[in-house]
Amino acid sequence: MGLIKNIFGLEVREEAVVSETSFIDTADDVDLGLPSFDASTTVTRRQALSVPAVASALFLISGIIAGIPIKLYRRDGNTITEITDDERTKLLNIETNSTLGAFETKQAMINDLIIEGACYCYIGKDGNSATSLQYLPKYRVSVLDNGKLIDRTVLFLVDGSYYDNFNIMRAVRNSNDGVHGRGLLDDNATQISSMYNALVYENGVISKGVRKGFLKSEGRLTVKALEALKRAWRMMTAKLGTSDVIVLNKGITFESADSTAVENQLNESKQTNADLIYKLFGFTDKTFTDEKAFNIFVKTTIMPIVNCFVEAINRSMLLETEKGNLYFSLDMNDLLKADMLTRFNAYKTALDSNWINVDEIRQREDLSPMGIDFVSMNLANVFYYPDTKKVYTPNTGVLGDLTTLKSVKGGENDEN
After folding, report:
1. Integer angstrom CA distances of residue 102 from 86, 135, 172, 310, 410
2. Distance CA 198, CA 268 (A)
3. Structural contact between residues 141 and 109, judged by C-beta atoms closer than 8 angstroms
4. If DSSP states are collapsed to H, E and C, what string results for the chain?
5. Closest listed residue to residue 319, CA positions, set 86, 115, 154
6. pTM of the entire structure?
7. CA 121, CA 141: separation in Å to the nearest integer?
8. For 128-162, b where at least 16 C-beta lie within 10 A, e where not — what string?
9. Is the pLDDT of residue 46 over 90?
10. Residues 388 and 399 sit within 8 Å (Cβ to Cβ)
11. Per-residue pLDDT tens for 93-123?
12. Which of 197, 314, 252, 332 lies closest to 30, judged by CA?
């Protein structure tokens, strides 16, 4: 590359002229248009859900939780009573009075909570009474606060309008401020991005319709020869190419890659990545085939999300005067139901232990009551009262006093 002078006396570099008969000496000059992908660890929600393992695991968990009934209970001392005629249970379980139904609303919120770390829902009200629930996608909600750690005030901006804290039901995950959370896209971006990029690369290779391999040349290629090879290769590998044949010059051969090794390695990598994703979501391949593994999955994966979601419901759906006396809870009985034989053996044990009656069991099995409101007692049992040192035998009606070693028949000296 030489130097020449222009009319102003300034030196400028002369661009090198590459002859068609020049040779290619570096790999940087060889570009056959192979598929490429973004190596960034940033991945969007849409990209993450295009990974089959992520989508299946997410929809599985959110579907399970969204299908669990939400019930309202009243606590009065040691007595807990279910409230069945409250309008809020209808909003949470049947009809939200908005476009999305109750199941779709809860599932969409759980999806946001897991993936992005926060979920929101607008509570329509008539005075203090909730009248509707309207799901708010996370990307449509902006959280504003006064910047204070103490006496913090939070407002929500949705479609250009401001809403107070009591109008928005929110649940956050892995949060240190109560309004911003961290989801899988924040905590596991590298792993998800790796799987996404692998799928993009594989799709790019497959979509070309060309077998993997190498072009080998016995000698050095000239620029003219390389350009001709690149044009022919691009025409052959184009999705809508007009040619499915490439003519190689003398000395250039195509060598197929060992498909067994390459494809097996790719498949093993996909299986390994899928297993890692399932572990991120909290379950393994044994979760749905082994009862013990499934119970562990419920306790370690489902319950933390349920507790977070229920806390958000109790905080936003209950009036301040109701908190402490009323509470919402998800009915986990159906989820934890074992097989019929196991359940019936457990019911038999409960009946023999006298802490449940027949109608309570029928209620758990969604059967109508039979009016059996008593608890059976084994007449062979003897009841001992530690405070008075007395023993009562129902079978004989005898009340004994251990301090005097005397016995008195029930009702003989005491009409009560």
Report:
1. 16, 10, 20, 15, 58
2. 12
3. no
4. CCEEECCCCCEEECCCCCCCCCECCCHHHCCCCCCCCCCCCCCCHHHHHCCHHHHHHHHHHHHHHHCCCEEEEEEECCEEEEECCCHHHHHHHCCCCCCCCHHHHHHHHHHHHHHHCEEEEEEEEECCEEEEEEEECHHHEEEEECCCCCCCCEEEEECCEEECHHHEEEEECCCCCCCCCCCHHHHCHHHHHHHHHHHHHHHHHHHHCCCCEEEEECCCCEHHHHHHHHHHHHHHHCCCCCCCCCCCCCCEEEEECCHHHHHHHHHHHHHHHHHHHHHHHCCCCCCCCCHHHHHHHHHHHHHHHHHHHHHHHHHHHCCCCCECCEEEEECCCCCCCCCHHHHHHHHHHHHHCCCCCHHHHHHHCCCCCCCCCCCCCCCCCCEEECCCCEEEECCCCEEEECCCCEEEECCCCCCC
5. 86
6. 0.69
7. 10
8. eebeebbbbebeebebeeeeeeeeeeeebebeeee
9. yes
10. no
11. 999 999 999 999 999 999 999 999 999 999 9
12. 252
For residue 204, give both structure tokens. 């790019």
Residues 221-274: tens digit of each pLDDT:
677 767 777 776 666 655 544 555 555 555 666 666 555 555 556 667 777 888
Residues contacting residue 338 through CB under 8 Å, at least 6 positions apart: 291, 346
**Owner of token pair 């240190």:** 176
- Tokens coding 226: 């390389």
Q: Which residue matches tokens 């490429």?
A: 36
Residue 68: count of CB within 10 angstroms of its CB: 20
Both structure tokens of 147: 């910047």
